[in-house]
Each structure stands twice: as C-alpha cells, then as structure tokens.
Write a structure and sequence with these properties.
The chain is of the alpha/beta class. It is built from seven helices and 17 strands. It has helices at residues 6-15, 97-103, 140-151, 171-174, 196-203, 217-226, 266-269; strands at 19-33, 36-42, 59-62, 74-77, 80-82, 87-93, 110-117, 130-135, 158-163, 180-185, 192-193, 210-214, 232-236, 252-255, 263-265, 272-274, 278-279.
Length: 282
C-alpha cells in the first residue's frame, strides 16, 4: 500500500483528536472596535487535552446561538490557545445574523462546538524566514502561527496586515503577539496607503522566504500574481461551510490536479493549501 502524502498523514492523525463539546464556557466576549471582537472559550477540564491538537490554521465549528439548534454551526480560526488555562481565543467580525447573536452572548454562557478541525500550516525549515500576510479578519490564524514560529525558535516574523481603514486593524490587540507589524489601509488612515499586496510588493519578498497568508480571494489572487514563482505560499482559505467535516461538499475548491484530484474540500483537505495549486474564483 502506498503511503499518504505528509499533509494527508497529518490530517488523519489530527482528525482522530476531534471532539464535539457541548459545554464551551464563554469567559470573554468583548469589542475590539470596528465590528471586530474577541471571544474566549474555556474547555471542560476533562476535555482539556483536545487543546494539545489546536494548531495555527485549524478551526472550530461553533454554534453561535444555542436557542437555534437547527442553524448551521459557523467556522472560526483559532487566534490563540492557552492549554494551561484550558482556553482558546477567536477573533471574529460581526457580519451577519449568527455573528450578531454571538456578539450578544454574555460570559458564563455555554456554547457547543466541534474542534479542532482541518489541517494547519507547516513550519518552514530553520533557515527559512517567514512573512505573514493578512487581510482583515484573516489575520486570526496568522497570529497563532506567529506564536508557534517563535516557540519553535524562529525570529519574530514580519506581519503585513491590511484593512480598508484603521478601524479594521485592531493594532492594540495584534501588537500583543510576537510579530513585527507593518500595517496598510486602503484609505491611508494608518500605515501604508494602499492594499497589503501593494505593500508586499513595495517592501519586496526574497526568493528564500516562506509566505503564509489569509484573507479575501482578491487579495490571494493578487498575491500569487505578484510573488516570484520560486516563493512558497501557504494560505488558509476562507469559505462558507455548513458541516466542517466534508459531508456536504459545500466548500469545494478547484485545484490544478486531474480527475478526483481536481477538487478539494476546504474543511476536510484544508483550510491550508499550497496557494499555487488552487484555482481561485471570485
């Protein structure tokens, strides 16, 4: 029997650690401004070992309102994890009905979720510098990645962080992570005047750098077009998900493969992919 590719081997191992938890306790749910919020959830002590399998790029399918059990759960990236305290953080934006309800939930409330799902980012070789490129709320998994990189003995990575205006950047919160922040805003209200890909082009990206990205599809498409072919790019894709486990096929993306290899599911096969192998469609 042929062996699975490394990423698929890891996904099989990680999927075995997934748990459905009915009592995730909200300890913090506060505004960061501009519709962005920080949610901290505490895992029951008997299930705390599940946090050992939380890595940058993986996600939780969370029910935003327990009063509506027939509503689909929503996917959220992990922004940080504290295994000792038994907690993890979600950095999210209020954009629709379910996230509006999530924003109204008070500390002490119990929510249900399935975690950790998907496969995460890979750590680059020791001598390969990393650059993180995030757009809007897509910065969330990159913050946890920065923490993991530094914990692995790498230097603080450069984070190119873009938003439409300064209120999209929540720099006070982001600056609490081990990153060297380079902000960009479309309206020029803070940092570089332009989008984050234009900032990356201005600052330059060496061929020996490993790029990690997360953000809207137009940003990712521009990034692939701008960066030299020799630069490796891993990206966490943002897709609408109904199940989070590959049952509904609602998050399929097209790749450069053939036959069965031409389609991948973001929830099951990702959400992290080699960006050059994905055919991005707006």
């Amino acid at each position: 029997m042929s062996s699975l590719p490394v990423r698929n081997q890891r996904a099989v191992i990680e999927s075995a650690a997934v748990k459905a938890l009915s009592e995730l306790t909200v300890t913090v749910n506060r505004s960061l401004g501009g519709g962005l919020r920080l949610l901290t959830l505490k895992v029951p002590s008997e299930d705390a070992s599940v946090l050992e399998h939380v890595h940058a790029g993986r996600f939780v399918m969370l029910r935003c309102d327990e009063a509506e059990p027939f509503k689909f759960r929503r996917p959220f990236s992990f922004a940080s994890v504290n295994a000792q305290a038994g907690t993890f953080d979600i950095y999210y934006k209020v954009v629709g009905d379910q996230t509006r309800k999530l924003a109204d939930i008070a500390p002490g409330t119990h929510l249900s979720g399935v975690l950790p799902l998907g496969s995460g980012f890979t750590i680059p070789p020791p001598d390969t510098p990393a650059i993180l490129i995030g757009g809007g709320v897509g910065v969330a998994p990159l913050l946890l990645l920065a923490t993991e990189l530094v914990a692995a003995g790498r230097p603080r990575p450069r984070l190119l962080f873009g938003g439409r205006t300064s209120t999209d950047l929540t720099l006070e919160y982001v600056s609490g992570f081990p990153v060297e922040v380079h902000p960009a805003t479309d309206d020029g209200s803070h940092g570089f005047h332009g989008n984050v890909v234009e900032l990356a082009a201005l600052e330059g990206v060496a061929k020996d750098v490993y790029v990690y990205a997360c953000g809207p599809v137009p940003m990712l498409k521009s990034l692939v077009e701008m960066l030299p072919q020799a630069v490796s790019i891993e990206a966490s894709l943002e897709e609408v998900m109904a199940c989070g486990i590959g049952a509904c096929y609602g998050c399929a993306v097209r790749t450069d493969g053939l036959g069965a290899e031409s389609m991948r599911l973001v929830c099951r096969d990702g959400p992290v992919f080699d960006l050059r192998q994905i055919r991005l469609e707006e």
